Amino acid sequence: MLTWLLGPPRGLPSSPWGPVGGVFAVLFAAIFAVVFAGVVMFGIVAVTPALRQAVETRCAGGSGECITALLVTMALVYFFLVAGLIVVCWFKRGATPGNSLMLRSAQWRGWQYLVFAVATVGSLIVLQQIIFWASDQLAIAPVDPSADLEQMRQYLNFEEPATLIVMGVLAVILAPMAEEFVFRGMLFAAFQKTIGVIGSAILLSALWSVLHWGYSSQNLLALFLLGLLFAYIVWRTGSLWPAIVGHTANNFVAVVALLTSQA
Length: 263
Description:
0% strand, globular, 10 helices, mainly alpha
């Protein structure tokens, strides 16, 4: 059944990067992303007086009122991070975006991607319910499961269409691609050379969950387990695309929940 659904195990393709090289490649891409995002954002504001005045006015109002500008900056960082990782692959002999980031085909049909997307969302919901229930039973830092959504809602202005559009592009398109490129793409195959597939999956899932620091400990644990699922599917298919699709589906549902659950 599992083979019919996911295909036979293919393992990770051989990566031209080692752990140290992979880390330096990610750091280079991150610096590239921050610099270019800053330059582009500064240029946009500088040549658009109306936009510059709007940003200055909003930022003068205090915390949370610059959210659209901050989201645009974050979107640019993620975009250039993806671009930077692709570019850096051409600087190493024998490296290409395909073998460095595992962008080869998963040999899946459309229905398999759909099933995995639904399974990803369902798995996270079930994991969250189990973890929050166990926390409540054990009295371990019990919190409201919707607390993270409430916290995010405090920093977003739902009355501005620009905020919603930028947030949607960032959360549903750019963040899944950039994060999967880094954690299950460049670094997963690189680290497995020294600590094995399981060790690499655990380490990078932990680091990925830490990236979301500020969430409740229960949701961080759920994200860690979701990261293990993504690592498994990348190992199973030898491709990053299923993980990107699952990550995108999860973020899409999270954005919809954020918008529809507001008071």
